[in-house]
Structure formats: structure tokens, C-alpha cells
Design a protein that fits this description.
Layout lengths: L1 H19 L2 H30 L11 E4 L5 H7 L6 E16 L6 E8 L3 H5 L5 E2 L14 E4 L1 H8 L9 E4 L2 E8 L16 E4 L24 E6 L5 H18 L14 E3 L11 H33 L1 H9 L4 H35 L17 H26 L4 H6 L12 H28 L13 E6 L8 H16 L4 E7 L11 E5 L5 E9 L4 H4 L3 E4 L13 E5 H7 L9 E10 L20 E10 L14 E5 L13 E7 L5 H12 L6 E5 H44 L1 H9 L4 H35 L13 H4 L1 H21 L4 H8 L1
Parallel strand pairs: 3-8, 5-7, 14-19, 16-18
Antiparallel strand pairs: 1-9, 1-10, 2-3, 2-6, 2-9, 4-7, 5-8, 6-7, 11-20, 11-21, 12-20, 13-14, 13-17, 15-18, 16-19, 17-18
């Protein structure tokens, strides 16, 4: 063992000297491997941060399961009676905005959860300070109490232990702090539902408008997320089947009109993950990232391996001398592999640091949604282990084959291999590596191009309205302690004052803004023929289309009297008329809508709630179409224009605004500080109100597109990296072939061969490799693109036979590869026969 470590130390020192003596090889290898390891580590960090990571601070997260869709509170009560399946269960409403005032300070909009007392016990967390809720806090009418997150306690209370027992104002109502959650715990699903505080479901509607009326007794109000901890030995499938049976029994007992529909009523997700995804669905999300990481590492290893082969061939005399002096082949292989491992280890450190920097930037990217959706993708120890494994694997992968090739004991065939310049060489190890490079590079280029084009097809969404000089600012007076009637009166006064400002050309109140992932659910409606259709639902104020700049194609917008609670008027989009009433006039057409007949998934972010859309089974209501508005392309998905129904913003909507609050939209004269003017008017009416999310429409669009632009640039960089690696690899192989055949080329030229003849013969091998690699890459990429089209909605419009990709990508790769091949081939045609023959002599 001592001898082994002594020899290893010598190998490391000798390898370091050899690498220092080959600065070109060392630099290119370090850069290639560092970038390859960085990209692969980024892919793993994204996979781990989105899918594999457990909820921080939770005890035994693998025991937790969660319902895929929200349930009503009465249904939750029935589920928690299954004591033979669950150790504990909990229900919560999330995300919920709260206006919080500490002492005499200003109100701040904070996000939290409405929870049952069993919430913390189900997750298995203990308070850092104070205590959590008990069973008494599920009874309506109990005193308002609140539990703070550790971060909120640190930032807002300065980590004072005396914070427990203090009184704060939540939505204008007093509440007592009873505890602080442990460090790191920020709720059930901190990626989508981050929580700064927790309030029990027993609080009054003044604290939580979501619980107004008899919300805890209504079976038609499905807004409670349900989570449970399985008993030992109980499988997820068994629990899902039992819950589904209970749900079906409840439908029968209470006469649900859809009780005979097919399909499961209850589906379970892993409840202890950052982003809950069904286990059977995980491969669809993980395979693409791992395929990208594998292709990048394959390209990197093939490129450096080819360079190592050429370098080892240049050291042929050294290796032959050492073999003749008695060195074993295994000893020489260990020396060569040690040198390559030094390169890999030296590249692993910057590779991980680059990945950490990129993932930190990506983690700081905020999604364009009204709730604080954040993903912590920063590499942790899992990613560090992956980077170490990738480093060792790449070092072995690109080092072992060249070492084996260079230390062949029978050297005569290797020396004679370049003896004849044939049109096509046999499939050597070098050529096999180049084939892998070309195929992997084209596959990577097509897959990233496929994703990039799909994303690019969603950019440029500012059509259908005028974004210039348009400004938005949101308010939520109900969260600041107003009643619904007071909020309605306030907004009427505010709109009147803003409309009188000389620099404001138009203004409107709205629940919905253009170009937003706003959580609005879809709505199902039936026309006069009884046919059922789907559409998006937008709730807007009077004259909404004027400040928004949406052209009206027919009819009119909403009048002031149309905003009365009993009004039944709607405006529809051009796409709705084109899709459902082609060639007909929509004006005056009746439609029937059940308020609860929503179609989740029509543009809503999974997990977000629009509480007005959570009601099911409500009596159908009849509306009349009074206008048709031009389509507004406002979505992330490829089919950007959707059927839309605009509903008038009623005074009752102010009593329970959505997560976005109510937005004041104003169009101002150019160069005017519209946001400042509106803030002054709000402060003049009530300085205690808290405006939030103030922005121009241009900023709204930039925020909306930021995630897509980041993804598009990511795929472009990965594809470009693959192109460079493939070109470098092919250039290296061609240069190596020219160097090995210098003697033969000199003889041919001495016998009268022209430069063009030599150039064609050398290029022929490169062309053959490019063609073969292109064919293999096209086949692999075609299969990959077919799979992607079913996984990612953002690429659905880019067909697997898209000529831009299937013709453009191979031509681009082939052009760069042949250019890389041409440069060393051209040098071969300039060999001085006399000098080459004298050198070999």
C-alpha cells in the first residue's frame, strides 16, 4: 500500500509537469470539461430543486401524501376519519394574502396559510418558540392567533423572544402571536405556497375573507388542500383507493349531479416534496434534463478523449522507450489515466462553481404571477456529489480509452496504420469517438433548437392591445380592514378622482390584466343549442377596453349600470365567435353559465386559487352577449389566442377580491409619472391603504416573458456548446491524421500528386464521418423530439419534421464541422516533401 501511494504521488507530479508542458491541450481540455460538468450539474440541480428535494424541516417526508386537487372542508372531515390509514391529517388554504401591521408601522402585504390545528403535527415540526394551535382553534369564533415563520420573526421582529405574546394587526384585526415555526420550514409546498405566517381556519371573515359565511360547512366550496401522514405499512395506492371510495360515497349521499362521471375522484401526490408530482409522472419531467446532461458529458468526453489520443500518439517514442525498459502496460496506463484525472479534477472545481453561479441567478428569477412562486435551484450537497461523480466519470471516460490505445504492446501495426492513404479508413477508436461527437452534437442541437423555437413562438405576445403609456397598480382594501361596501365606495371615489386628472387619458378598474398568468380558471358555458363550450373568464370594469387599447369589433362594452350585482351582460372575444359561432353575429346571443362550472387548467398556474372559481354545483345563470372584443394574445402556450368571456366587475367582487387584488389600469400622456399621480390620489383618500405591484405594462410584459427568455438563452448556449465541441473534435482528428501520415503525403507529393488531390483525400474521411454522424444524430433527435412534443406544451407547435430544424441544424453542424476539418487538411497540402522526408530519415 505504501508503494502504491508513493508511485501515485510520483505519477501526480510527473503528470502535472507533462500537462504544464502541453498548455494548449491542457487549456482546451480544462475549458471543455469545466463547461460540460457545469451544464450537467445545472441540469441535475434543476431536477433536484424542482422534483426530488424534500420540504425543508419536515420529519420523514416520504410518509406524507397530498390530494392532487383541493377538497371541501366537510369532505376533509370525512377523510380524516380514516384512522386505519393515516396517523394524522391536515387541511389548509394557500396561498392567502394578509395585510400585516406591526406596532404603529405601515401595513405590508404578506402571504400565509389558513390551517387546521393538526397542520404542524402532520408535518412533524416543532415550534422554535412558543406553541402551535390546538383543537380549540378549529372552532369558529375563537380569538385570532398567528404563528410566524422563522424568517418573518427574524426580519420583522429582530429575533426577539418577546415576540411571542405580542399583538399584531392582520387585515385590520388584532391577532396574538403564539409561536414561531422552526428555521427553514416555510409551509407545505414552499415553491408554490410559501408561508410567512399561519392563521387557524376558525378566524372571522374580517381576518380571512375566504372563510366568509359558512365556508367550513359548504360541500360546494373546494379550496382546501389536504395532506396526510400514512401509517406504517399503508401504501399510497391503498390510501388512494380508500379515499376515492369515500369521495364516491359522498357524491351519492349528497346527490352530486356529476356522480356518475368516469374516472377517479381522488389522486394522491407525494406530500413531502417541494413540488408534488405523481411518482409515475416523474420520468416525464426528469428524463429530458438527464438526457441533456448525458449528451453534454458525452460530447465533452469524446472531444477530450480525441485530443488525448492525439497527444498520446505524439508521445509514442516515450511510451515505447518505457515499455522497452520493462515498464508494464498497466503501470503506463495508470500514469496516463492519472494525468487525465488531474485535468478532470482541475475542471471539476470551476465547473461546480460555474453551476452554482448560474443556478443562483436562475433561483433569483421571479415568475410572473401574483403569488410569490420561487424555486431554490442553488446546488446543495446532492449537486456537489453529482459534480464529483461526473468529474470522476469524465476523467475515466476520456482517459481510459486513449491510455489503452497508446500502450498497445504490438506497436508495429500502429506504426504501419498510416502507411497507405486510402479513401476511407477503417472504424478506428478516434473515428468512433468522432461519430459519437457528431451524433450527440446534432441530437443536442436539434433538441435544444426544438425547445428554443417552441419558446420563441410564444414571444411577441403584445398583440391585440396597446401597451404604450399604460400603467397598473393594485389595491386590496378588504385586506386593510375595509368591508365590502366600504371597498366599493372607495374604488368609485378613486376612479372618479383619477379620471379627472388632466394627464390621465383613460382609467378602469379590473380584476384581470392583459399578459398575465393570473390564476383565472376557465369557465364552461352552453349556448342556445345546449352545446357545451370552454372559455377563459376575465372580470373587468366599465370601459376596460379603452385604457387597455383593445379594439371593440361589435356592440359595446359594459355600462355603469352593467356593474350592478344583478346585471347579466358579457363581452366575448373574436376567437370565441370564430370557434363556436362561425359566420354568425354574437350580439344578443344568450349563454348559460353555472358559476361553479369551471374548467381548471385553462391557463391557470397549477396550485393557484381564484376563490370565486372554487364553487361547484351552483345554479346556472343566463347572460347576454353585448359586445365582441379583438383577441388578445396573452399566454405562455403556443396557441396564444383563446376563447374569452369578459364579465363585469360587480360591487360584490370588492368584498372578496382574488389573489391579485383589484387593479387600477390607467393610460397616461407620454412622459407622465402616472404611478406617482395615482399613489397621491390613493394617499389623499386613505393613507393607511397599501398599494402594491405598481408597474407599467411594458414591465408587466418583460416580467411575463423573463422566464421564457432565460430558458431560450439556456438552450441556445447548450446547443452552441455542443457545436463547438463537435467542431473541435473533428478538427483534432483531422490534424492527428495529417500528422500521422506526413511521410506518406510527402512521398505522394514528391511523385507528382497535386495539392488538390491531397486535400480531397484528407477531406474525404472527414466528410464520411460528418455524413454518418448526421444520419445517426437525426434518428436519435427525431425520436427525442417526438417524445418532447407530448411533454412540453411550449413546443407543441414545432413539428418533428419542421424544415428549419431538420434541414437547418444538420447543415449548420456540417458546415462548421467541415470548416474545422478543412483547416488542417489545407495544411497537409502545403507539406514540403523534402523537409518531411528528411525529418523521417
Amino acid at each position: 500500500m505504501i508503494r502504491f501511494w508513493t508511485e501515485l504521488r510520483r505519477d501526480v507530479r510527473y503528470g502535472a509537469r507533462m500537462l504544464a508542458g502541453s498548455p494548449g491541450f491542457t487549456a482546451v481540455a480544462l475549458i471543455s470539461l469545466s463547461l460540460g460538468i457545469a451544464i450537467a450539474t445545472c441540469a441535475y440541480s434543476e431536477l433536484h430543486g424542482l422534483i426530488l428535494r424534500d420540504v425543508p424541516g419536515v420529519r420523514q417526508p416520504d410518509e406524507l401524501v397530498a390530494l392532487q386537487t383541493p377538497a371541501s372542508f366537510p369532505n376533509y372531515r370525512r377523510y380524516r376519519e380514516l384512522h386505519d390509514l393515516f396517523l394524522s391529517t391536515a387541511a389548509y388554504v394557500a396561498p392567502v394574502p394578509f395585510s400585516v401591521v406591526l406596532g404603529g408601522g405601515r401595513a405590508q402585504r404578506t402571504w400565509g396559510h389558513l390551517v387546521t390545528p393538526s397542520y404542524f403535527a402532520t408535518f412533524g415540526v416543532r415550534p422554535a418558540l412558543g406553541r402551535f394551535f390546538d383543537e380549540a382553534h378549529e372552532q369558529p369564533g375563537s380569538a385570532a392567533m398567528v404563528v410566524l415563520s422563522y424568517r418573518f420573526w427574524q426580519e420583522r421582529f429582530g429575533s426577539e423572544p418577546a415576540a411571542v405574546g405580542r399583538s399584531v394587526r392582520i387585515n385590520g384585526q388584532p391577532a396574538t402571536v403564539i409561536g414561531v415555526a422552526p428555521k427553514g420550514f416555510e409551509g407545505a409546498s414552499p415553491a408554490l405556497f410559501v408561508a410567512e405566517l399561519w392563521v387557524p381556519v376558525s378566524v372571522s371573515a374580517a381576518v380571512a375573507p375566504e372563510l366568509a359565511g359558512d365556508a367550513l360547512e359548504r360541500r360546494d366550496l373546494t379550496m382546501f388542500q389536504v395532506i396526510a401522514r400514512l401509517r406504517p405499512g399503508v401504501t399510497e395506492d391503498r390510501a388512494e383507493a380508500a379515499l376515492d371510495a369515500v369521495a364516491r360515497k359522498l357524491e351519492q349521499d349528497y346527490g352530486d349531479p356529476d356522480r356518475d362521471r368516469p374516472g377517479r375522484r381522488v389522486l394522491l401526490l407525494p406530500g413531502g416534496k417541494i413540488l408534488p408530482i405523481r411518482k409515475q409522472d416523474r420520468p416525464f419531467f426528469s428524463e429530458f434534463l438527464m438526457v441533456l446532461a448525458g449528451l453534454v458529458l458525452l460530447l465533452t468526453c469524446a472531444t477530450v478523449a480525441n485530443m488525448a489520443l492525439a497527444r498520446a500518439a505524439d508521445r509514442g517514442r516515450e511510451i515505447a522507450v518505457r515499455l522497452s525498459l520493462g515498464a508494464s502496460r498497466a503501470r503506463l496506463m495508470r500514469q496516463l489515466v492519472t494525468e487525465n484525472m488531474l485535468v478532470a479534477v482541475a475542471a471539476g472545481v470551476p465547473g461546480f462553481l460555474i453551476a452554482a453561479w448560474l443556478m443562483r441567478l436562475l433561483s433569483d428569477l421571479r415568475m410572473p404571477v401574483p403569488i410569490p412562486v420561487t424555486f431554490d435551484l442553488r446546488p446543495d450537497w446532492h449537486a456537489l456529489l453529482f459534480a464529483l461523480a461526473a468529474t470522476v466519470a469524465t476523467g475515466i471516460a476520456f482517459g481510459l480509452a486513449p491510455a489503452w490505445q497508446a500502450t498497445r504492446t504490438d506497436l508495429a501495426p500502429a506504426l504501419k496504420e498510416g502507411g497507405a492513404l486510402r479513401g476511407y479508413r477503417r472504424l478506428s477508436l478516434r473515428n468512433a469517438l468522432v461519430l459519437c461527437q457528431m451524433a450527440a452534437s446534432l441530437t443536442l442541437l436539434l433538441l435544444t433548437g426544438y425547445m428554443g423555437l417552441g419558446i420563441q413562438s410564444t414571444i411577441g405576445i403584445q398583440e391585440g392591445f396597446d401597451a404604450r403609456n399604460l400603467y397598473l397598480i393594485s389595491l386590496d382594501p378588504v385586506r386593510d380592514g375595509y368591508t365590502g361596501a366600504q371597498a366599493a365606495a372607495f374604488f368609485a371615489k378613486l376612479l372618479e378622482r383619477v379620471e379627472r386628472l388632466p394627464s390621465i387619458t383613460a382609467a378602469s378598474l379590473t380584476d384581470t390584466v392583459p399578459v398575465a398568468i393570473d390564476g383565472n380558471a376557465g369557465v364552461q358555458f352552453s349556448d342556445a343549442s345546449g352545446a357545451q363550450h370552454d372559455a377563459r373568464r376575465h372580470i373587468v370594469g366599465k370601459d376596460y377596453v379603452v385604457p387597455a387599447g383593445i379594439p371593440s369589433l361589435a356592440g359595446r362594452g359594459f355600462r355603469r349600470e352593467g356593474q350592478a350585482d344583478g346585471a347579466r351582460e358579457v363581452v366575448v372575444s373574436e376567437e370565441l365567435v370564430r370557434k363556436y359561432w362561425p359566420g354568425e353575429s354574437a350580439l344578443g346571443k344568450p349563454i348559460e353559465i353555472g358559476n361553479g362550472e369551471v374548467a381548471p387548467g385553462l391557463g391557470a398556474l397549477p396550485g393557484t386559487l381564484d376563490f370565486r372559481a372554487s364553487v361547484v354545483g351552483v345554479a346556472r345563470q343566463r347572460y347576454e352577449v353585448v359586445g365582441v372584443a379583438k383577441d388578445v394574445a396573452e399566454d405562455l402556450v403556443v396557441s396564444k389566442k383563446h376563447p374569452v368571456i369578459y364579465f363585469p366587475l360587480h360591487s360584490s367582487d370588492y368584498a372578496q377580491p382574488s389573489l391579485r387584488g383589484v387593479t387600477l389600469m390607467v393610460r397616461a400622456a407620454p412622459g407622465v409619472d402616472a404611478i406617482g399621480l395615482v399613489r397621491r390620489e390613493i394617499s389623499a383618500l386613505d393613507s393607511g391603504l397599501t398599494p402594491f405591484n405598481a408597474r407599467s405594462m411594458t414591465e408587466q410584459i418583460d416580467r411575463f416573458m423573463s422566464a421564457l427568455r432565460a430558458a431560450s438563452w439556456t438552450y441556445a448556449v447548450i446547443g452552441l456548446f455542443g457545436l463547438i465541441l463537435a467542431s473541435v473534435g473533428l478538427a483534432g482528428v483531422t490534424a492527428y491524421a495529417v500528422a500521422q501520415r506526413g511521410h506518406e503525403i510527402a512521398i505522394r507529393m514528391a511523385l507528382g500528386a497535386q495539392s488538390g488531390d491531397v486535400l480531397r483525400l484528407v477531406m474525404r474521411e472527414g466528410v464520411a464521418l460528418v455524413v454518418a454522424g448526421t444520419m445517426i444524430g437525426l434518428a436519435a433527435a427525431w425520436a427525442g423530439m417526438r417524445a418532447l412534443s407530448g411533454l412540453f406544451f411550449s413546443v407543441a407547435s414545432v413539428q418533428s419534421n419542421d424544415p428549419t430544424l431538420l434541414a437547418g441544424a444538420p447543415l449548420l453542424l456540417a458546415s462548421l464541422a467541415l470548416a474545422a476539418c478543412y483547416l488542417p487538411a489545407r495544411r497537409s497540402a502545403r507539406i514540403d516533401p523534402a523537409a518531411a522526408l528528411r525529418a523521417d530519415g
